[in-house]
Specification:
Elements: H1 2-26, E1 29-33, H2 35-43, E2 48-51, H3 56-62, E3 68-72, H4 78-87, E4 91-94, H5 101-113, E5 117-121, H6 135-143, E6 147-154, E7 157-159, E8 167-169, E9 174-179, H7 191-215
Parallel strand pairs: 1-9, 2-5, 2-6, 3-4, 3-5
Antiparallel strand pairs: 6-9, 7-8
């Protein structure tokens, strides 16, 4: 019986969420900054969009025109996120740091090398929140694709009690969305260089995160300074 209800829920809930989110996100006032960084990078080849886990549901909606292979947890709960991503026109790639991580990374490399853009959650599927993992750096180094960091904030939002404080903008809220300048990672970098670029990515993402939340008159949505 548990299996039946799970199959029913992963069929119904993602579709219901996508229908409702299209309606309520359309009611929001959105101010974007730096979109030219993404557009210019896309014009020159494949791009790796990178963001924190808290932001992924609105990111999927916002980047509907930017179809990408997106890394999603291989867990049962990750199936809901994978289906939402698919319904917004993205290609889910299953894998995480703790399960099927290596195969997921290889799959992502194949997708990018075949010409697809990538979407990677920088802090992974289990965190810690807003601490970058090296996956995006490795994909960038092996595909010669630039990383575009991004973050959003909303004047009114719903946050869940998950490790990342997963957030969703509420209807009629004001949204600030910022794209950062591209990060270019050299090919064939070694472990010490990977750590250097990982830290740069983490700092850039947190700078953008802080900026957008300050613009809506709020501090960090997750309480992490």
């Amino acid at each position: 019986m548990k299996g039946f209800w799970y199959k029913l829920s992963i069929t119904v809930l993602p579709r219901l969420y996508v229908i409702l989110s299209r309606l309520w996100f359309a009611s929001c006032r959105v101010r974007m900054e730096g979109r030219e960084h993404l557009d210019k990078a896309v014009d020159n080849g494949t791009v790796i969009a990178v963001f924190w886990h808290y932001s992924l549901f609105y990111i999927f909606y916002n980047l509907q025109s930017f179809s990408a292979a997106v890394m999603v947890s291989a867990s049962k709960d990750g199936e809901y996120i994978a289906r939402v991503a698919h319904l917004f026109g993205h290609t889910p790639v299953r894998g995480s740091a703790n399960k099927q991580g290596v195969s997921g990374l290889k799959h992502m490399l194949r997708e990018v090398r075949s010409g697809k853009n990538a979407g990677i959650v920088a802090d992974g599927s289990q965190g810690p929140a807003r601490m970058a993992q090296p996956g995006a750096i490795m994909v960038a180094s092996r595909t010669n694709s630039p990383i575009i960091p991004m973050a959003w904030a909303a004047s009114r939002y719903l946050a869940f009690s998950s490790w990342d404080r997963l957030a969703v903008p509420l209807p009629f809220s004001r949204i600030e969305f910022k794209y950062g300048e591209p990060i270019f990672v050299p090919a064939g970098i070694k472990a010490a260089e990977i750590e250097s670029y990982r830290l740069e990515l983490e700092n850039r993402l947190n700078e953008i995160y802080t900026t957008v939340w300050e613009r809506v008159g709020r501090g960090p949505h997750d309480g992490i300074s």
